[in-house]
Amino acid sequence: MAKKHLAAVVLAILLALAAGATGMRASEIDDGMPLIHMLRPLLHSGGDLGRRGRVPCDSWRFAVETNTLRDWDTVPARCEKYVGNYMLGGHYRSDSRAVANEAIAYAEGLNLTGQGKEVWVFDVDETTLSNLPYYAKHGFGVEPYNWSTFGAYVKEANAPVLPETQRLYKRLQALGIKPVILTGRREDKREATANNLAAAGYTGYLKLLLKPQNVKVSSIEFKSGERKKLQDAGYVIVGNIGDQWTDLLGEPEGGRTFKLPDPMYYIG
Ligand SMILES: *[C@@H]1O[C@H](CO)[C@@H](O)[C@H](O)[C@H]1NC(C)=O
Ligand SMILES: *[C@@H]1O[C@H](CO)[C@@H](O)[C@H](O)[C@H]1NC(C)=O
Ligand SMILES: [Mg+2]
Questions:
Q1: A GO molecular function for this record (predicted)?
Q2: 148 in ligand 2 pocket by Cβ < 6 Å?
Q3: How far away, in angstroms, is 106 Cα from ligand 2 center?
Q4: What is the pTM of this model?
Q5: 108, 111, 112, 238: residue to mutate for ligand 1 pocket, most atoms within 8 A of CB
Q6: pLDDT tens, 27-82?
Q7: For domain 77-259, which architecture applies?
Q8: Largest Cα–Cα distance in the chain?
């Protein structure tokens, strides 16, 4: 790079940094030179991304999906529109498609030698079924979780299918891999969950495993414990898919894990 050009770029960055500090938009100081990746420091962005106001919503979502940001209660209010657009526009669907494509390619490459003992673990909420009709009415995760209204919605057994997960589900069945449904929903939701899964087109699964009614157990503890039981019973968990990291973490995880997007809530 020519020395003069380099100096100009450095000046542009310094101006951009100054613009960030004064709240001026970087584009306002753009004099036609390519901006170097908008190197503007966002003030107060170091700590709790959820509470502090300056991190763009797509950066917030990145932190959520990578399990960097944990134990958050609600979607930041300023991100309601962003999350709504993400969920209802094509983006959520195309991110889910990318995950399903990868999972199918992986499954198709497996050597199935387990004499029909290979299983694949599926979560329910935001994995086999979508609660978007509920969340669309409750601020896409901006409103605090309300167990009574959400519980009533679950009991309606009317949640729509997540089509990309269903495509994976049916492909696995065609390959001879048996689905196991493992959910953090409690036993009192068994009938509603089974009915909802059937209505959404999920048939022929090996087991539907729900959390016991009155036992206090974390999601990781419960789900990894159930996977261990499957393994001890001679099943081979070749894959595991869910929208929460707590669906996927904890030994045994399964041959491979697949994380679906979910910027609406966090389950610890
Ligand atoms: C599956 O088995 C075939 C034939 O034995 C072998 O060529 C292939 O590499 C195996 N694939 C995997 C993923 O192990
Ligand atoms: C949950 O929703 C119900 C019905 O709208 C309301 O009466 C109740 O106060 C809410 N509970 C919480 C904890 O917000
Ligand atoms: Mg879920």
A1: acid phosphatase activity
A2: yes
A3: 43
A4: 0.81
A5: 111
A6: 444 444 444 443 333 333 334 544 455 689 999 999 999 999 999 999 999 999 99
A7: 3-Layer(aba) Sandwich (3.40)
A8: 72
